[in-house]
């Protein structure tokens, strides 16, 4: 099995993209404001009106000298007050990732990793989302609501200048009047000026 840097260099080389560049940890994130009750939320498609704290991209593709391997998917749902809620209210929610014209992840179920359901199937947040007895006053040991996070077993590559998006599908799920956020974390390459500085 190839390492992340090897797979990224292989894909970049096949596409004729620059293979030199600064290796880095890369996190891409995007926010959808006030999605309400819907059957589909699409991330990394609309960037208009979003601040630097709501997204770190201005288009749904990386620059010509940048590429990335996705290792972790992260989803969060916030109320208008800023408090964290369970993503999709633990409803049956799936995620698909489209890179170029290829669906590289198709209908991955997210509800099993929601904090309220207790133990995440990938053990990423082993003690997260423990239920609290609301009839007694007690000290909270665990965070009640947690983002949904999934660590991928395969390396998903976002090549330079290739459009991508993340689609979350459900059946009339209330995502609320606040905001939902998707983050893609992994390994990447960014522009390196070489010896010029």
3D architecture notes:
This protein is mainly β. It has a single domain, classed as Jelly Rolls. It contains one helix and nine strands. A hairpin with a 5-residue loop joins strand 3 and strand 4 (84-85).
Please name the defining characteristics of this protein.
mainly beta, Jelly Rolls, four-stranded antiparallel β-sheet, 9 strands, 6% helix, globular
Helical residues, percent: under 10%
Q: Structural class, from secondary structure content?
A: mainly beta
Number of strands: 9
Task: Quote the average pLDDT.
Answer: 79
Strand content: 35-45%
What is the 3D form? globular
* Major sheet characteristics: 5 strands, antiparallel
- Reading off the top of the CATH hierarchy, the class is best stated as Mainly Beta
Q: Could you give the order of the helices and strands?
A: HEEEEEEEEE
CATH fold-type name: Jelly Rolls
**Separation of the first and last Cα atoms:** 36 Å
CATH architecture: Sandwich
What is the total domain count?
1
Taking Cα atoms only, what radius of gyration do you get, to the nearest Å?
18 Å
- Low-confidence runs (pLDDT<50, min 5 residues)? 116-130
In short:
The protein has 197 residues and is mainly beta. The protein contains 1 helix and 9 strands.
Topology:
Elements: H1 4-15, E1 22-33, E2 37-43, E3 67-78, E4 84-85, E5 94-99, E6 102-109, E7 148-158, E8 164-174, E9 179-190
Antiparallel strand pairs: 1-9, 2-8, 3-4, 3-7, 3-9, 5-6, 5-8
């Amino acid at each position: 099995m190839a390492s992340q840097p090897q797979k990224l260099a292989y894909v970049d080389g096949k596409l004729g993209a620059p293979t030199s560049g600064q290796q880095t940890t890369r996190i891409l994130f995007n926010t959808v404001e006030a999605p309400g009750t819907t059957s589909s939320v699409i991330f990394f498609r609309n960037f208009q009106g979003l601040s630097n704290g709501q997204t770190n991209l201005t288009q749904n593709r990386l620059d010509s000298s940048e590429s990335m391997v996705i290792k972790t998917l992260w989803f969060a749902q916030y109320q208008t007050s800023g408090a964290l809620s369970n993503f999709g209210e633990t409803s049956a929610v799936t995620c698909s990732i489209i890179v170029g014209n290829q669906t590289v992840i198709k209908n991955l179920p997210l509800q099993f990793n929601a904090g309220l359901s207790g133990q995440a199937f990938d053990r990423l947040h082993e003690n997260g989302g423990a239920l609290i007895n609301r009839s007694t006053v007690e000290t909270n040991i665990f965070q009640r609501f947690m983002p949904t996070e999934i660590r991928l077993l395969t390396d998903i590559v976002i090549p330079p200048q290739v459009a991508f998006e993340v689609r979350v599908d459900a059946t009339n799920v209330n995502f609320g009047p606040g905001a939902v956020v998707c983050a893609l974390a992994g390994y990447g390459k960014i522009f390196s000026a070489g010896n010029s500085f």
